[in-house]
TrEMBL record:
Domain Aminotransferase class V residue range list: 3-343
CC terms in the record's Gene Ontology section: cytoplasm
Catalytic activity: 4-(phosphooxy)-L-threonine + 2-oxoglutarate = (R)-3-hydroxy-2-oxo-4-phosphooxybutanoate + L-glutamate; O-phospho-L-serine + 2-oxoglutarate = 3-phosphooxypyruvate + L-glutamate
Name of the protein in its database record: Phosphoserine aminotransferase
Summary of subunit composition and partner proteins: Homodimer.
Protein encoded by which gene: serC
Organism: Paenibacillus glucanolyticus
Matches recorded under PANTHER family: PHOSPHOSERINE AMINOTRANSFERASE
Cell location: Cytoplasm
Binding site for L-glutamate: R40
Sites of N6-(pyridoxal phosphate)lysine modification: K194
InterPro entries: Aminotrans_V_dom, Pser_aminoTfrase, PyrdxlP-dep_Trfase, PyrdxlP-dep_Trfase_major, PyrdxlP-dep_Trfase_small
Length: 359
């Protein structure tokens, strides 16, 4: 298997892929693949419900939350959130932390009034705003936050207390990578393709009282209450993706739940950050040390030429996905849940070899 440091779609656990392969053609002795089954049948519905229950169980079964499966990725959530939650005379509040927060507010601006409650743009997003500097507007409909900026490589370690204002969080690139207190949030959501499964489904975990009655003018597929009332089976769901999510959730349980995967994630990230910090300046981390992400490790070399050489040499050694996002350049190692520790070790070894060959 490749050393897969892709930012997304990302590596899936080998055990999950092998389990899925074993069941691919004949699921549970039905003579069919899970993706050939009716989404209205008992066999698929059991998988669908199990994935929802397993997800809530990993989050400690807080009361009042529902899991929805929605197509269109996290990007469609950027639009659905203001469409559903931004009422007349209200203001949508956003914390600006990087490329994905910018995309989220862009959609809200198409729908209604917005307010930047805090921003680290002045630091070129190399820092994160302090929680106490987040200033909500009057009539705030919600505060939207991006827990992990996939492109810049920053990650919030704690979340703000917004009182009665609903806190909504895009956790696309760090969901289920560490424990978090769901009860702090009115809604969290994530495109599946990093920590949860294949692309094609966004997972929304939302307090039920938020979505019982969506605005009447919204089309059915863009209303949260459609998904709530129909258990995300109003239309044909991405059934194979949801089956895969259930298998990934089983794998997380086997790894010791969120505490277990967090420990592994911290070890992997620390190994790579240590290699950067002990390189005598050959490698330089892009963001302030206290906001470094455990999921997306961004770093640079002295020149863009050298970075190109690094990427080329890494590919020759079986590494995939180390080129930084085209909008910011540099290098990025994405080390999501499924990246094996051995891959992080191999990267560190390669980084040292590359440095030795150039100095
Ligand atoms: N939000 C974050 C933090 C992301 O990293 C991404 C994708 O990389 C998205 C949103 C967009 O997700 P999607 O491609 O599922 O629309």
């Amino acid at each position: 298997r490749a050393y897969n440091f892709n930012a997304g779609p990302a590596a899936l656990p080998l055990e999950v892929l092998e389990r899925a392969q074993a069941e691919f053609v004949n699921y549970g002795d039905t003579g069919m693949s899970i993706m050939e089954m009716s989404h209205r049948g008992a066999v698929y519905e059991a998988v669908h419900n199990e994935a929802q229950e397993r997800l809530l169980s990993l989050l400690g079964n807080p009361s009042g939350y529902k899991v929805l499966f929605i197509q269109g990725g996290a990007s469609t959530q950027f639009a659905m959130i203001p469409m559903n939650f931004l009422g007349q005379g209200q203001v949508a509040n956003y914390v600006m932390t990087g490329s994905w927060a910018e995309k989220a507010i862009k959609e809200a601006r198409l729908i209604g009034e917005t307010h930047v409650a805090a921003s680290s743009e002045a630091s070129k997003y190399m820092a994160l705003p302090e929680l106490q500097d987040i200033k909500l507007s009057d009539h705030a409909a919600y505060l939207h936050l991006t827990s992990n900026e996939t492109i810049e490589g920053t990650q919030f370690k704690e979340f703000p207390d917004t009182g009665s204002v609903p806190l909504i969080c895009d956790m696309s690139s760090d969901i289920l990578s560490r424990p978090f207190d769901l009860s702090q949030f009115a809604m969290v959501y994530a495109g599946a393709q990093k920590n949860l499964g294949p692309s094609g489904v966004a997972v929304v975990i939302v307090r039920e009282d938020m979505i019982t009655d969506s605005p009447k003018h919204l089309p059915s597929m863009l209303r949260y209450d459609t998904y709530l009332k129909n258990n995300s089976l109003y239309n044909t769901p991405p059934s194979f993706g949801i089956y895969m999510i259930n298998e990934v959730l089983k794998w997380i349980q086997e790894k010791g739940g969120l505490e277990g995967v967090q420990e592994l994630n911290r070890k992997k990230a620390a190994l790579i950050y240590d290699a950067i910090d002990s390189s005598g300046g050959f490698y330089r981390g892009c963001v302030n040390a206290e906001v470094r992400s455990d999921m997306n490790i961004t770093f640079r070399l002295g020149t863009e030429e050298l970075e190109k050489e690094f990427v080329k040499a890494s590919e020759q050694e079986g590494f995939v996905g180390l080129k930084g996002h085209r909008s910011v350049g540099g290098l990025r190692a994405s080390v999501y849940n499924a990246l094996p520790y051995e891959s992080a070790q191999a990267l560190v070894q390669f980084m040292q070899q590359f440095q030795n060959s150039r100095s």
